Amino acid sequence: MTKLHYTRSRGRAETTRWMLAVNQIPFENILIDTPEKLAALRATGKLPFDQMPLLEIDDHNLSQSSAMIRYLARRGGFYGDTDTDALWCDLVAGAVSDFSETGLKAVFQPTDEIAISEQQTAFAKFAPCFEGRLMENGTGFCAGTRLSFADVILVEALSSYLEWIPDILEPTPLLKALNETVLSHPGIKAYLTSDLRYPKPDNTCVIDIARVLQRPLPSHFSDPNQFVTPS
Ligand SMILES: N[C@@H](CCC(=O)N[C@@H](CS)C(=O)NCC(=O)O)C(=O)O
């Protein structure tokens, strides 16, 4: 069984979960929810950069979410049909990686108002470019004539924005249509309604991550250094 090791959250493992889902590969979330479990995982030597997530698949130990999504894209034929399609997949994926950071960081912001405002700013910057790409390509997809990993990770990033700002896609009809296309894929649909999909991140996730990584909490928490071990 394919195993994805990560904290009890979507975080940097979520694009890989969506790519497993679109490939319809059954997988297990292996919870790394204590500093001891993280230390034990690091001691196995399976984390070349000491970072989670770790994806155990096809006798490989994969690190780095960008490598995981590309491995799964090649494995399932989600990297376009031509070199030009593949190039567009990578171009869009690069922009999605920047765009998704604001969604990932939303839960770490001191107030919901700040989280929403930051996402509105990032959406205003990137969404017209994604919409423009969809218009130029003219197939309903970001690259080539069918679904690619670029579409999947773009909609994954949008899913976070939509949880904070439900009407955010109204000004971008092509992005809205792509969102619906990806969400109606049978593998994605099954994943999103399964127990494998974690809920919208909240303070519990923020605390969990800081505790497992023994890192400071955001400064608006009352005791930001409570999990930092003195060196
Ligand atoms: N570029 C990496 C980043 C992974 C990452 O930052 N992982 C965090 C947990 S969310 C981690 O393991 N941090 C521990 C460390 O950097 O030592 C990826 O996308 O996989």
Tell me about this structure.
With 231 residues, the chain is α+β, with helices and mostly antiparallel strands. The protein folds into 2 domains: 2-75 and 190-213, 3-Layer(aba) Sandwich (Glutaredoxin), CATH 3.40.30; 77-185, Glutathione S-transferase Yfyf (Class Pi), Chain A, domain 2 (Up-down Bundle). The protein is built from 9 helices and 4 strands, in the order βαβαββααααααα. The chain has helices at residues 14-22, 35-43, 65-76, 83-105, 112-137, 149-164, 173-183, 186-192, 203-213; strands spanning 2-6, 27-31, 54-57, 60-63. The protein starts with a strand and ends in an 18-residue tail after the last helix. Bound molecules: glutathione (GSH).
Notable characteristics:
231 residues, alpha+beta, Glutaredoxin, Glutathione S-transferase Yfyf (Class Pi), Chain A, domain 2, four-stranded mixed beta sheet, 4 strands, binds glutathione
